[in-house]
Amino acid sequence: MKALLVGADRLGNIPSTLNQFGINEYIHWSGRKKGMRNYEIPEDVKMVIVFYDFIEHGLTENVKEKAKKLSIPCIFSRRACSDLACRLDNCKECKEFCKYAKSEVKH
User: Fold this and answer.
1) Could you tell me if 35 and 58 are in contact, meaning their C-beta atoms sit under 8 angstroms apart?
2) Which Pfam families match (predicted)?
3) For the chain, what is the domain count?
4) What string of pLDDT tens digits covers the 107 residues of the chain?
5) In this structure, what CATH number is given to the domain that contains residue 29?
6) Domain range for residue 35?
7) What's the number of CA atoms in the CB half-sphere (13 Å) around residue 79?
């Protein structure tokens, strides 16, 4: 499954946490520039993850609205593996996508 990660200049260990939830591909937008408000969410993205402690505020609202229009789950997390894992684990919509992604990997 592919996710869009918005925010954070560096991801650190975030990709390994994503892999644990079946998210093995991602697109990363740092979220620091106003021009990113004009970016469109790619069609093959199944989930949006916003790291709210490292993002331009207007982009947060913009990404949230775009994800809602496309019916894509959008979660908000600090840029910390523990917080991200907790948010993914507690998100009902994310569990469905992650379950689907994990079953895709097994076959």
Assistant:
1) no
2) DUF2325 (PF10087)
3) 1
4) 899 999 988 899 999 999 998 899 999 998 877 778 888 999 999 999 999 887 877 888 899 999 999 999 999 999 899 999 999 888 766 656 555 444 444 33
5) 3.40.50
6) 2-106
7) 17
